[in-house]
Amino acid sequence: MDRKSFYSKLIPLTIILGISFGISRVGFPGLSEAGHRVLGIFVFAALAWTTEVIPLAATGAAIVFLESLFLSGPLGIEKGYKLWMSSFASSTIVLFAGGYFLAVAMKRYSLDVRIAGAIMMKAGQKPGGILFGIMATCAFLSMWMSNTATTALMMAVVLPIANRFDKNEKFVTALLLGIPFAANIGGIATPIGTPPNAIAISNLAAAGIRITFTEWMIMALPIALALLFIVWRLLLAAFPPGKNNYSVEIPDLGETAFRGKVVFGVFIITALLWLTESLHGINSAVIAMIPPIFLVGSGIIDREDIQAVGWDILILVGGGIALGTAMQRSGFSEWLLALLPLSKSHSLVVMLVFGFITLIGSNFMSNSATANIMIPLVLGLSGEADNTLVAVAVAFCASCAMALPVSTPPNAIAYGSGLIKLRDMAKIGAIIGLISLIFVTIAIYFIGNLIPGVY
Length: 455
Fold this sequence. Notes:
Order of helices and strands: HHHHHHHHHHHHHHHHHHHHHHH
Distance between the termini: 48 Å
Largest sheet: none
Oligomer: single chain
Helix content: over 70%
Structural class: mainly alpha
Mean pLDDT: 81
Low-confidence stretches: none
Shape: globular
Radius of gyration: 22 Å
């Protein structure tokens, strides 16, 4: 980094810190001293995440640093830094890390490509079948690995085909937009699919509400599948194919190597244990330790592979957990939400309001950062609304923001192909976002309230 780049980050960061400190010193009626300090940290996090003046993970680490310095005394917690530091070792972080180790191993031994090929072979040559095959592949892979990595993989498979089409062929846009949109939707289905899920689960756990891997999937998987179908139909309608038959070529990787078979076995065992947690009683975070222990211990993945694990996302989520804990313990969430006239509102209304705010925020900043800001607020709600359902709805809506290249990394990757027009992404992405908001809200309310045993 040269001197100019250094000051281009230092100056806005200093301004953000100054604004945050100034707001924390304003005397707000009804807010405790601890609440004022949390307000300052909250403003810092919101501004830093929104502007990305420093990397998102750096902001997550800064939250823990600031809380360790300024919140131990006002909150009356002896050696309170331990509380904030423990956010980096929460069960949610361990669960997410286990998923990352699995994803890295699958990529290392090309299992992701093999799974993609197996699904795509069933797609046929009809345009609707090809588009759905691509989207189903993206969604399935994103349930278990990074949606960014999934998008990069599928773009590599589809781009050579897309480049053969006539420049005026609208269906190319459907193919290329279907990849990031399906990757975003697929991440909803499992706790390890996308960071907003982990943020919701960890904040709910801190509030004494534990959601198992299976419980999450019972609600999330049907919603994700329905959204996938809706988006598929919308893309076909918006960008109709010009021919009745197309062909998609999948590379032949030959026989799966022994190590690849071992990785696949670890994946199956881990996934089955996650899905049967209610039968054997082993916590999903404990199960998540199987992939790193076995894959690293056996030498199937090495130091270079370990470095590819999404450590920055884990730090970001850890910072979000610490921020949520501080907001709840200090009474800041309750104070802020008391300013909103939602205490007597129905759960559906509250879900729509917070879901819409989340959708807008996630279109312009990281969905992880948006979830880190919104979910702790939701859990401070008092009144008729079911906080658990609202928190889950916020997590889902954070993954439904697809209108701009900056909305999610998958969107950025797809837009970077140069074959997608911004107005096409913005128009269909905005429509999908609004439809998803309404559908997710109604579906979560229906499943959560009318099906016994879910949340």
